[in-house]
C-alpha cells in the first residue's frame, strides 16, 4: 500500500534520498551532532542557502513592525490629547 501511495505523488520523507557526505564529517554541524550523541555522523539537512536574503527580509520586516508599534502608540496619545482639548469638562 505504501508503494502505491508513493507512486501517486504523496509526499515522501526527503531524508530517504540523502546519502552521507564524508566531506561534511568535520563541519560544525557534525561536531554538534556527535557531541549530542546522535548515531548519524552529522545532522541531515543543510545550511540555509539564502541566509543573507532571509536576514535582509527579516531586518526589513522588523523595521516595518517597529514603525507600526510607534504609529499605534502615538495615535493613542494624539487621540487622547485631541479628546482632552475638545471636551475639557468630560471628566
List the helices and strands and how they pair.
Elements: H1 2-7, H2 28-35, H3 51-86
> How many beta strands in the DSSP annotation?
0
Task: Note the overall shape.
Answer: rod-shaped
Q: Helical percent range?
A: 40-55%
Strand content: under 5%
Please give the alpha-carbon distance between the first and last residues.
Answer: 74 Å
Tally of DSSP helical segments:
3
Radius of gyration, in angstroms, nearest whole number: 27 Å
Low-confidence stretches: none
> What does the largest sheet look like?
none
Oligomer: single chain
Topology order in helix (H) and strand (E) letters = HHH
Structure notes:
With 91 residues, this protein is an all-alpha fold. It has 2 domains: 38 residues, no CATH class; 42 residues. The chain contains 3 helices and no strands. The chain is rod-shaped, with a radius of gyration of 27 Å.
Which properties best describe this structure?
91 residues, mainly alpha
